Amino acid sequence: MKTNARANHGFTLVELAITMVILAILASLALPSYRQYILRGHRADATRALQDVASREESYFFSNSGYTASLTTLGTNSSVAGQYFTVTLASSSSSVYTATATAQGSQAKDALCTSFSIDQVGRKTVTGTGSPTDCWGTQ
């Protein structure tokens, strides 16, 4: 019985190079989709926070016959939307308010929705290239 002196014990450099090229192509296709998924998730956190602030404003209005411009008075703060958005509250009188979430950090690269707002009548607006539906989801 004759034995083969050159036994196949592993991968060749060409096989490893081909595998690395295939993995690089797959990663280059998947990474942008993943980034968009992450940005959408952070937007959802911000819209939830704005809706919470709006709800707190309505409760405050019911008890005090007017809105407030202070997040602290509502029992929350500017980081209510997490680390990727800063929430501010503006009120020009006791009968109106606007709560705004502004992107910060890595979220600021989201050109679709750099900031979005809700007011006392529930009007939802955005700053960026996206529409209110893009940023707020279905309305």
UniProtKB/TrEMBL annotation:
Signal peptide: none
Keywords: Membrane, Transmembrane, Transmembrane helix
An individual GO BP term: type IV pilus assembly
Species in which this protein is naturally found: Dyella telluris
Top-level lineage group: Bacteria
PROSITE patterns reported for this sequence: PROKAR_NTER_METHYL (PS00409)
Record bears the keyword Nucleotide-binding: no
UniProt-listed SUPFAM superfamilies: Pili subunits (SSF54523)
InterPro entries on file: N_methyl_site, PilE-like, Pilin-like
Transmembrane residue ranges: 12-34
Protein name per the record: Prepilin-type N-terminal cleavage/methylation domain-containing protein
Keyword check for Chloroplast: no
